[in-house]
Backbone:
């Protein structure tokens, strides 16, 4: 290990593995290390025995099925089918290592009942979520979103969305608070209402992205990898290895080596590897990050689909903050044997949110009540960290912890920002050109 690299990356979470793959493709000599014996870090997927061991619950019961049939995510997220993560996957061609399947449905909880999220003007007119007059107003709003062209003032309806707030945009179309709530939280996917007082353009673009993603598969805007989210870090690890990257699991990090205030290497098991810069998740740099909140999650094993989801094999449910008098939404993501993450007849549902009280587990009760009978459950509470500085002074570039967001939107923004801090340029997400051989 006593060698010199362009970059040493600590932790094999998805963010770090994406950066490892991209930097390797660009010709950087990368050493990737993890204290764990498995890929994925916080975004790992565990079999049943590993899950019980991690949460100190002894041995799983025979009623749950074979351990090897489980791939349970520690971080519950789906992938927006037209989002930035898909652009990264396509650009790097990591999709050749992965198989994806669409998520069956996306639902919002209103007055204690579940409703499919309407995503087009036509669906809005059919939805039982709204009365007939509100359906028409919502339909007109969604038409406006679909037709809006920033370069064409004729589509703006007299509104400058870089100045007009999201709240004012909704009011312009006469939308009621309940409708605003489900559009802002179930389509734009904001987890609190802070966005309402900010310029409306980002919200409109998020709503449009949701609609475009739904158009790809017709049921929901999300896709999910077969065998769990940890397949993605492993895919990027393979990409890095093809381009000369070196991976070392089960390697304790004993010391970060500095010279003149800049990181120049890592010491592990008595050996030192030198580098020009370091990249890593917050757990490797506790003195260089600050706490930004806490997330509470509950992994649940079910023997049935979530009630009132049309027996969906996979689904996302959002409980908007106002529905349960909170400051943040509650999210539920459910997958099953259809995605090769559980035995036939079993579902994995994960309920999560930002912590707001001194009793975090109780905060998830509204979500747990929607699941029906639960075979077993595993609570976790984790701190969320963000770097104190941008890394330019000490050559250490740190990602943020994963948030409770239902998909990888903000996580992808973080990856792109870390990449830009390292290289000084935006990551090129232009799709690769297909040669004639690929099209035959």
Residues:
């Amino acid at each position: 290990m006593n060698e010199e690299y362009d970059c040493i990356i600590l932790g094999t979470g998805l963010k770090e593995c994406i950066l490892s793959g991209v930097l390797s493709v660009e010709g950087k000599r990368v050493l990737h290390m993890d204290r764990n014996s498995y890929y994925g870090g916080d975004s790992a997927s565990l079999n049943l025995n590993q899950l019980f061991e991690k949460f100190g619950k002894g041995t799983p019961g025979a009623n749950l099925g074979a351990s090897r049939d489980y791939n349970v995510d520690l971080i519950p997220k789906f992938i927006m089918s037209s989002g930035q993560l898909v652009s990264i996957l396509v650009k790097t061609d990591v999709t050749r290592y992965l198989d994806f399947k669409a998520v069956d449905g996306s639902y919002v909880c209103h007055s204690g009942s579940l409703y499919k999220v309407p995503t087009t003007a036509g669906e809005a007119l059919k939805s039982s979520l709204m009365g007939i007059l509100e359906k028409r107003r919502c339909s007109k709003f969604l038409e406006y979103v679909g037709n809006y062209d920033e370069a064409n003032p004729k589509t703006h309806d007299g509104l400058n969305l870089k100045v007009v707030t999201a709240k004012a945009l909704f009011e312009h179309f006469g939308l009621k608070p309940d409708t605003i709530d489900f559009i802002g939280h179930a389509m734009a996917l904001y987890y609190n209402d802070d966005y309402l007082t900010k310029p409306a353009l980002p919200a409109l673009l998020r709503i449009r992205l949701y609609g475009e993603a739904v158009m790809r598969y017709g049921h929901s805007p999300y896709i999910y990898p077969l065998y769990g989210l940890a397949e993605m870090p492993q895919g990027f690890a393979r990409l890095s290895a093809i381009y000369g990257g070196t991976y070392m699991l089960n390697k304790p990090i004993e010391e970060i080596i500095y010279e003149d205030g800049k990181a120049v290497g890592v010491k592990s098991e008595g050996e030192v590897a030198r580098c020009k810069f370091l990249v890593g998740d917050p757990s490797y740099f506790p003195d260089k990050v600050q706490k930004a909140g806490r997330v509470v999650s509950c992994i649940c094993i079910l023997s049935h689909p979530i009630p009132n989801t049309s027996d969906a094999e996979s689904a996302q449910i959002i409980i908007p903050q106002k529905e349960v008098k909170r400051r943040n939404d509650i999210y539920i993501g459910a997958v099953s044997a259809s995605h090769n993450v559980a035995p036939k007849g079993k579902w994995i549902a994960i309920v999560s949110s930002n912590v707001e009280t001194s009793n975090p587990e109780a905060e998830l009760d509204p979500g747990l009540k929607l699941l029906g009978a639960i075979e077993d459950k595993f609570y976790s509470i984790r701190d969320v960290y963000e770097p104190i500085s941008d890394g330019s002074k000490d050559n250490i570039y740190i990602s943020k912890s994963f948030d409770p967001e239902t998909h990888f939107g903000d996580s992808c923004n973080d990856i792109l920002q870390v990449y830009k801090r390292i290289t000084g340029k935006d990551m090129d997400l232009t799709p690769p050109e297909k040669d004639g051989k690929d099209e035959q």
Remarks:
- The first helix runs from residue 14 to 25.
- Confidence is low (pLDDT under 50) at residues 436-440.
